[in-house]
Amino acid sequence: MAFKDEQQAKAYWSENLALMFKLLAIWFVVSFGFGILLVDVLNEVRFFGFKLGFWFSQQGAIYTFVVLIFVYVFKMNALDKKYGVDE
């Protein structure tokens, strides 16, 4: 990567880390919060015939993680273009 100056590189990595922490927070809430902590509350709701808490712990966290990967790729491509370090 070729940044114009050190300040631009720091701004890029700052935005990159902020994005990563936001996505990791979403993943944590879905996997740990919905799949473990709130499972009893969510089990009162049915989703495609399954209890919602069970669905989040078995499938929902995985689907969310895959979606977060695509969101990260899309956002990082936009961030790379913003700072002129895209491929």
Can you walk me through this structure?
The chain is mainly alpha-helical and 87 residues long. It has one domain. It has three helices and two strands; from the N terminus they run H-H-E-E-H. It has helices at 6-37, 39-42, 52-83; strands at 46-47, 50-51. A two-stranded antiparallel ribbon has the order 1-2. The termini are close together.
What labels would you give this structure?
mainly alpha; 87 residues; 78% helix; 3 helices; two-stranded antiparallel sheet; single chain
Would you spell out the secondary-structure blueprint of this structure?
Elements lengths: L5 H32 L1 H4 L3 E2 L2 E2 H32 L4
Antiparallel strand pairs: 1-2
Helix pairs in contact: 1-3
Distance between the termini: 9 Å
Beta percentage is under 5%
* Total number of strands: 2
Overall geometry: elongated
Condensed summary:
The protein has 87 residues and is mainly α. It is built from three helices and two strands, in the order H-H-E-E-H.
